Amino acid sequence: MWPDRSDRINHNGPDLLWSQVADDLREQIRSGELPSGSKLPNEWELSEAYQVARVTVRRAIIELRKEKLVTVTIGRGTFVA
Questions:
Q1: Where residue 1 falls among pLDDT bands split at 50, 70, 90?
Q2: How far apart, in whole angstroms, are the C-alpha atoms of residue 81 and residue 63?
Q3: 6-80 maps to CATH 1.10.3630.10
Q4: How far apart (Å, rounded) are the C-alpha atoms in residues 15 and 27?
Q5: Exposed / middle / buried, residue 22 (Cβ in 10 Å: 0-12, 13-18, 19+)
Q6: Which of 15, 25, 26, 72 makes a 20 to 30 Å CA pair with 38?
Q7: Cα(64)–Cα(58) distance, rounded to whole angstroms?
Q8: Which residues of 36-62 are buried (b: 16+ CB within 10 A; e: fewer)?
Q9: How far is residue 22's CA from residue 62's CA, in Å, rounded to a whole number?
Q10: pLDDT score for 15
Q11: What percent of the chain has pLDDT over 70?
């Protein structure tokens, strides 16, 4: 289980929540904190960590997939590309 990351999200700010989650994950990938091949927590765990709805996490993952930063394998999970 990932630690609480809700302090990285401004729930009352002008930026969309999914965009903030994607930005945080993107930063972790680019910094090497999440290296290539590492598995991300599932949507439920990420939604708990960021204190957002699961659909918000799903939208963030879709954006990261478009950018080819992560790959999703059904039944296995989401991995850093």
A1: confident
A2: 13
A3: no
A4: 16
A5: buried
A6: 15
A7: 10
A8: eeeebeebeebbbbbebeeebbebbbe
A9: 9
A10: 96
A11: 100
**Rounded to an integer, what distance in angstroms lies between the CA atom of residue 44 and that of residue 38?**
18
Say if residue 2's pLDDT is above 90. no
Positive or negative, the CA dihedral 47, 58, 56, 30 is: positive
What residue type is 3 in one-letter code?
P
Which of 43, 25, 18, 42 lies closest to 81, judged by CA? 25
What letter represents residue 17's amino acid? L
Confirm if 63 and 46 have CB atoms less than 8 A apart: no
